Amino acid sequence: MERTPVGIILNGVTGRMGYRQHLVRSLLAIRDQGGVPARDGSRIWPELTLVGRDAGRLAEIAERYGLSAYTTDLDAALADDAHQIYFDAQVTAAREKAIRAAIEAGKHVYTEKPLAEDFLASLELARLAAAKGVRNGVVQDKLFLPGLRKLKRLVDGGFFGRILSVRGEFGYWVFEGDWQAAQRPSWNYRAEDGGGITLDMFPHWHYVLEQIIAPVTAVTAVIATHIPERVDENGGHYRATADDAAYGIFELAGGIVAQINSSWAVRVHRDELVEFQVDGTHGSAVAGLRDCRIQHRGTTPMPVWNPDLPVTEPFRAQWQTVPDNGEHDNAFKVQWEAFLRHVVDDEPFPWDFLAGARGVQLAEAGLRSAREGRRVQIEEIPR
Ligand SMILES: NC(=O)c1ccc[n+]([C@@H]2O[C@H](COP(=O)([O-])OP(=O)(O)OC[C@H]3O[C@@H](n4cnc5c(N)ncnc54)[C@H](O)[C@@H]3O)[C@@H](O)[C@H]2O)c1
After folding, report:
1. From the CA of 230, how far away is ligand 1's center (Å)?
2. How far is it, in rounded angstroms, from Cα 139 to Cα 361?
3. Quick one: which of 267, 248, 157, 150 has its CA closest to 204?
4. 364 alpha carbon to ligand 1 midpoint, in Å?
5. Protein residue with least CA distance to atom 18, ligand 1
6. Three-state DSSP class for residue 276
7. Separation CA 45–CA 343 (nearest Å)
8. How far apart are CA 280 and CA 47, in angstroms?
9. Fewer CB within 10 Å, N- or C-terminus of the chain?
10. Within a 13 Å sphere around the CA of 26, how many CA atoms are in the beta-carbon half?
11. Cα–Cα distance measured from residue 79 to residue 73, given in angstroms and rounded to the nearest whole number
12. 138 SS3 class
């Protein structure tokens, strides 16, 4: 089958997301399946160039997967016409500068979220990309997860009637790093390095709410740094300057209220690491990353409050499982395939820099709400 090669610069490929989700589970998996079908009958074929700061680690990864192109010189990679796409999975704080350079070099840009550390910078990147006429996209992986796809299917099918509210619970215990190693990189807990759970998670909640339920119109948040000191990758103690928990109330168009707790200082008593319960006049659903359960108004029990008696109903057993009704591939890979078709075949790709900027806008509004102790309205971004 004829190939349409697309040169991709992958920056931050030694990191958790860059390596596992984007290189291995997405782009190498796309090559393993023989590329992505293009409209002209050929297969879009990712040609990968790994970029990072440590040549030794890049060489190791390249060798492991039979790749030959890697460099520590981003500028040189950007100057090379063989590359059409720049992808960024670096730490958040390093992203804006690299993306600016990539746009300037005329590359199409795809990036991890958050697009930048603040809203103005994100908006500026969206404007620069539009002015230069390059394709642009931001990872919004949760939309492509089986649990949330099933939730979207329920919304599209009118299952809920009028949606009233959403309650989301995200989080798990991230070890402090002293008596057990922390399972997340330490920069996440330092504000000066682009860390913080609000900046990390509110962009996700923004697109989940906007694209599955309704656009966010206002936010009220309380944030906390519950664990003030942690131990880093080298065993050094450091002060956690970033928030590790964010308790948000999001007002959505149509009078829907969404409350989402995000925390790295909570222990899991749930079925999945994130769960959203959506209640509507005709039915309710609880969606996680993979599964989704529903309860229709016709099967809703009538509990009566009486603390003198033991619980009379097996509440969890009264929900039904939503079937898969199809294959669900890796969420990052599905979005990569869409971006490649966007670049090669001009297929629609709504998850662009402007969408990413709206996510950062919500994070910033949440932080302001917490700082000033007030509700913050979300201004519409003029196109
Ligand atoms: N979509 C998601 O679900 C999701 C999940 C986790 C993280 N992320 C995002 O992915 C990005 C990377 O997160 P991660 O957890 O993989 O982090 P990580 O620390 O594991 O990896 C970061 C990468 O950036 C590089 N890097 C580190 N410091 C740098 C510096 N000062 N300058 C340039 N490069 C540097 C590292 O070498 C590494 O390749 C972040 O922006 C984060 O918000 C997204």
Report:
1. 19
2. 16
3. 248
4. 20
5. 15
6. strand
7. 12
8. 47
9. C
10. 27
11. 10
12. strand
Residues 6+ apart with CB under 8 A from 338: 347, 349, 351
Question: What digits encode the pLDDT tens for the residues 66-84?
Answer: 999 999 999 999 999 999 9
Cis peptide leading into residue 114 (ω within 30°): yes
pLDDT tens digits, residue range 148-190? 999 999 999 999 999 999 999 999 999 999 999 999 999 999 9
Q: Which of 10, 14, 17, 71 to mutate to test the pocket of ligand 1 (most atoms within 8 A of CB)?
A: 17
Among the atoms of ligand 1, which is closest to the Cα of residue 98?
33
Enumerate residue ranges in the chain where pLDDT < 70. Answer: 383
CA of 88 to the centre of ligand 1 (A): 9
Distance 233 CA to ligand 1 centre (A): 14
Task: Name the closest-CA residue to atom 4, ligand 1.
Answer: 17
Q: Which two tokens stand for residue 60?
A: 């190791």
Q: In DSSP terms, which residues pair with 279 in a beta bridge? A: 165, 284
- Tokens 């807990």 belong to which residue? 189
Distance of CA 354 to the CA centre of its chain: 15
The atom number, within ligand 1, closest to the CA of 17 reads 16
The pLDDT of residue 218 is 98
Q: Which of 301, 298, 210 is nearest to 258 (CA)?
A: 210
Torsion, CA 239, CA 241, CA 245, CA 249, rounded to 10: 170
What tokens were used for 136? 């642009």
* pLDDT for residue 339: 98
Q: Please, where are the H alpha helices in the chain? A: 16, 29-32, 55-64, 74-79, 92-104, 119-132, 146-156, 197-208, 331-345, 353-372
Give 115's contacts (C-beta < 8 A, 6+ positions apart).
95, 99, 122, 125, 126, 138, 203, 353, 356, 357, 359, 360
Stretch (H or E) spanning 307: none
Q: How close are the terminal C-alpha atoms of the chain, in Å?
A: 41
CA neighbor of 265 nearest in space, from 170, 173, 202, 168: 173
pTM: 0.96
DSSP 265: B
Ligand 1 centre distance from Cα of residue 163 (Å): 36
